[in-house]
Specification:
Layout (H helix, E strand, L loop, with lengths): L5 E6 L3 H10 L5 E7 L3 H10 L4 E3 L2 H5 L6 E4 L6 H10 L3 E5 L6 H12 L5 E4 L6 H12 L4 E9 L19 H17 L3 E8 L11 E8 L4 E7 L7 E8 L3 E5 L2 E4 L16 H15 L7 H18 L1
Parallel strand pairs: 1-2, 1-4, 2-3, 4-5, 5-6, 7-10
Antiparallel strand pairs: 7-11, 8-9, 9-10, 11-12, 12-13
């Protein structure tokens, strides 16, 4: 018997929206039936490219369509929490791109609403799904690697308000509530232990963007593992995030889907999962959880401690 496809609405036709559309194209039994973006011309162009029948400039227009089962939110950070609640209230499963919120109060509100529903709600903490980090996690779970320290550099060049494609943004990105969220969550996940200490310092806030362009964070897990995180929007190449895992049985360096040992030798992670695309694997987990009636990895409840740590750090910086 053929299963009915999961019908998805995707909100946000920007850089990350396109990444999700590319990943979903590889997932059987799923179809994007509605695309939302405030720029109707851009929405129509992307919809034509990916054969999406319906376009809208308002999320509510997509939520009102009874055939929509689930929503993926790739919208500006400041909208994530309110739109996630909007989806849940409309009876739709929802995956919201990282970060879940830019205030703890809003993250808690989404978590409470999800708890009172039977719906799948997930946040796009992609690092949990990248094969390189999954490889490390498998060693942790097998008891053959215990994390002692994680050193992370998240460096971009973003002195103007542009997205990953170099296009102008209508909103401002954030080192703490967006980019640090990846590492804060991943550190606790890989250490297998909650964060019990956290400290942060930041550089000046230039008037052009009004946000810190440089930041340093130190974390300690209950089991003694440490994490040092350097973040910058002032780095003129190489761009991205580099992770150094220092453990009791080895040292590993990860960057997206690449993994090296401490001596610089490449480790084959191509067999860790069904794809090397972290966004695709993240989406596969979302749809599998919907079909199986379970909560996914990186559920709202699982990632909520990350946002509690980010809130504590923000209080220090203020």
């Amino acid at each position: 018997m053929t299963r009915r496809p999961i019908n998805v609405a995707l909100a946000g036709a920007g850089a990350f929206g396109l990444k999700h559309l590319e990943g979903i194209a590889n997932i059987p039994g799923v179809q994007v039936v509605s695309l939302v973006d405030p720029d109707l011309s851009k929405a129509r162009q992307v919809a034509e490219q990916y054969a999406i029948a319906h376009v809208a400039t308002s999320l509510q227009d997509s939520l009102a369509r009874p055939q929509v089962d689930a929503v993926i939110l790739c919208t500006p950070t400041q909208l994530h929490a309110s739109q996630a609640r909007q989806c849940l209230l409309a009876g739709k499963h929802v995956q919201v791109e990282i970060p879940l919120a830019d205030r703890l109060e809003d993250a808690l509100a989404v978590a409470e609403l999800q708890k009172s529903s039977d719906l799948v709600a997930m946040c796009g903490h992609t690092r949990r799904f990248n094969p390189s980090h999954q490889w490390i996690q498998q060693k942790v779970q097998a008891g053959s690697f215990r994390l002692q320290q994680m050193d992370v550099q998240t460096h971009f060049f973003r002195r103007s308000n542009t997205n990953a494609l170099g296009q102008p943004r209508s909103w401002t990105d954030h080192l703490l509530w967006h980019h640090a969220a990846h590492t804060v969550d991943l550190f606790a996940h890989q250490a297998g232990s909650p964060i019990v200490q956290s400290h942060a310092v930041q550089g000046p806030l230039p008037p052009e963007l009004g946000i810190a362009m440089d930041m340093g964070i130190v974390l300690k897990a209950a089991n003694g593992a440490l994490c040092t995180l350097s973040l910058s929007f002032n780095n003129d190449g190489p761009l991205g995030t580099f992770f150094r895992y220092i453990g009791d049985t080895g040292t590993y360096v990860a960057r997206y889907d690449e993994l090296l040992d401490g001596q610089g030798q490449a480790i084959d992670v191509s067999q860790v999962d069904v794809s090397m695309n972290g966004i695709e694997l993240q989406d596969r987990e979302f749809f599998a959880a919907i079909r199986e009636g379970r909560q996914p990895r990186a559920s709202i409840a699982q990632v909520l401690p990350c946002y509690q740590v980010l809130h504590a750090l923000e209080q220090q910086l203020q």
